[in-house]
Amino acid sequence: MSKADERVLESTRVADWLRDTIIDGVREPGSRLIERDLAAEVGVSRVPVRDALKVLEAEGLVTLRPRTWAVVREFTAADMADLDEVRSVLEPLAFRLAAQRHRRDGLAQLRQALEAEKASALAEDRITSRRAAADFHEVVTELAENRLLQDLMRSMRSKLRWGLSQHDDLAHVTDEHQALFDAISDRDEERAGALALAHIDSSRREREAHERALRAAAGRAANEQVSGRR
Predict the structure, then answer these.
(1) Count of C-beta atoms within a 10 Å radius of residue 226
(2) Is the pLDDT assigned to residue 216 strictly greater than 60?
(3) I need a labelling partner for 177 at 20 to 30 A (CA). Which of 37, 82, 139, 161 fits?
(4) Which of 184, 198, 205 is nearest to 94 (CA)?
(5) Residue 72, SS3?
(6) Are the CB atoms for 107 and 143 separated by under 8 Å?
């Protein structure tokens, strides 16, 4: 393997690791990402870290700053509204095509993602459940067997995964995914499309509730800190 290939593999590994820490909430919006610190943390040189940060910038997860650092991007309400509008067009199409075109092996893969999501939700493993929920959506796009649609969905993959991670009611999401799976399995295109649209609206409400809960928790923590100083 050439040095160039090794660099690509290493930067891809770093990008995958860093992406997960952002989407899983380990690194919060506004967090600084210092090249030398990240390189020391993952045990690589600064070059693959720099390459990884460029990849994540293209995906919309970080904002590069001058010199050798970046910041985890903070998604605004307008950003998420834009994402919901695009999802409302593309995802119902993906679910309808998946219902029409899925094959037995693809349906088995979708069931596997759903079962992983259910099991982790039952165990209250939020990170694993949210990852499996995102996997469910990606498998559906594969089942649609439309290359242009796959390219479009891939271009917003990280933003979509981040949006799907912003919820607390794991059981509710798995119930909706079960209904979507049943519609695909039954090859009911219209039901799959309608459920997908309803699921996007439900995801929006769950995300907004999650944001309110975080703000309330931050407010309580601030009040407790002020009270402790008195």
Answers:
(1) 9
(2) yes
(3) 82
(4) 184
(5) strand
(6) yes
Q: Which residues of 145-182 are buried (b: 16+ CB within 10 A; e: fewer)?
A: ebeebeebbeebebbbbbbbbbbeebeebbebbeebbe
Query: Measuring CA to CA, which residue among 97, 81, 77, 62 is closest to residue 187?
Result: 97
Rounded to 10 deg, the angle between the 126-144 and 170-185 helix axes is 20
Fold of 77-217: Four Helix Bundle (Hemerythrin (Met), subunit A) (1.20.120)
Spatial distance between the Cα atoms of 26 and 132, rounded to a whole number of angstroms: 17
The C-alpha atoms of residue 139 and residue 185 are separated, in whole angstroms, by: 13
* pLDDT single digits (tens) 169-179: 889 999 999 99
pTM of the model: 0.86
Domain edges within the chain = 3-72, 77-217
Beta strands per DSSP E along the chain: 32-34, 62-65, 69-72
